[in-house]
Specification:
2 domains; Nucleotidyltransferase, domain 5; 8 helices; alpha/beta
Amino acid sequence: MTKNLALGVDIGGTNTVFGAVDTAGTIHFEYSIPTPLYTTAEELVDEIYNKVKATGKLEHIIGIGIGAPNGNFFSGTIEFAPNLNWKGIIPLTQLFKNRFKCSTTLTNDANAAAIGELTYGAAKGLSDFVIITLGTGLGSGVVIDNNLVYGHDGFAGEYGHIRVINNGRLCGCGRRGCLETYASATGVVRSITELESKYKATSKLNNITNPSASDVFKLSEEGDLFCNEIVEYTAKVLGSSLADFSSFNSPKAYILFGGIAQSGKPFADKVKKYMEESLLKIYQNKIEIRISQLHDKNAAVLGSASLVWNQHN
């Protein structure tokens, strides 16, 4: 007998990934489709419905969880997402409910990741933590007393757009000095050109056309001195910022997720070092830096599907 399944949907500017997950975290099927191919959200929902129906498991789907950029938990809408072709306010939750005839929950992608870690990953057993997603930008999901923090309008927890450097780097949001312009894959790439170093001219980065953040971390592991400085600088900005943010909710742990976090314990240890140096004494040696346990799985599907189990608990 097939178990009850949650359909997890992660909508990104490039791809939409979706799959069916049971309570143990087993993914029964998954697909990836190019988001820009669908000129309207309705077309995307229809395509997902048809693919799920073709698996023969449609009747076992008891709910749908969706992670999406600018996804509003309260309204069930995507609102003015800059990286999607669908402009304005999209009633995405209602579109899925109409097509699938089951309950649907929408939130932003970082919040979905937070619930995924709580259900399946590094946040098991934690009631107070923050997930920091280190991708193209920096996202965050804040959990206090086992509840996600949404704020009055559904958009709370934008740590990536807290300004940490006075009159610093220009951000895509239009302001200067936001954390994500330093601690993200894009921020690391910007550091290649913007950081001054006596080791810059001899770095192996000069031999790479359009070097990426992963190139920086790889070369750092190989001993490239300039790349070492970039990694150190990234960890310092992130760690000292997390120290300041700790005054807000005193989390038990920050969980690092995403491409930069996959560099593992050495980077996490650096972040921890700089965080401890900047923490108020009442918080010192109390807050962990953990690494996501979902990197080797489809975290996007697990995270969004876990929204369903969170609602059913």
